[in-house]
Q: What sequence folds into this?
């Protein structure tokens, strides 16, 4: 129903600096197979913990997990990727907020 408009929005997003930087940073991570595998491993472990534990126990387990992956999080390519992803997600959240606000009018 809104395919054309959605494609226009996606293309507009792809033309932003935020998207270009996040996409470029992701490609750098993708080229480093070891680093990519470690990050995927971290995400999988994080999901497992979130499905098994709640509240304080989850917080404790996640803190331990984060400590065990600290070297990876300090890798310059990962720092760059995380910063770029944060800015892209923030922009997309702002788009969502603007859509929501316009629907309320």
A:
């Amino acid at each position: 129903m809104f395919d054309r408009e959605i494609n226009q929005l996606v293309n507009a997003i792809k033309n932003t600096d935020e998207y270009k930087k996040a996409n470029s940073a992701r490609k750098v991570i993708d080229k480093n197979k070891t680093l990519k595998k470690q990050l995927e491993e971290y995400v999988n472990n994080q999901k497992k913990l979130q499905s098994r534990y709640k509240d304080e126990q989850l917080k404790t387990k996640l803190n331990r997990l984060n400590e065990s992956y600290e070297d990876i999080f300090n890798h310059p390519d990962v720092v760059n990727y995380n910063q770029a992803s944060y800015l892209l997600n923030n922009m997309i959240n702002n788009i969502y907020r603007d859509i929501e606000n316009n629907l309320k009018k």
In short: The mean pLDDT is 96. Residues 34 and 40 are 10 Å apart (CA to CA). The helical segments are 3-14, 17-31, 33-52, 55-68, 70-73, 76-103.
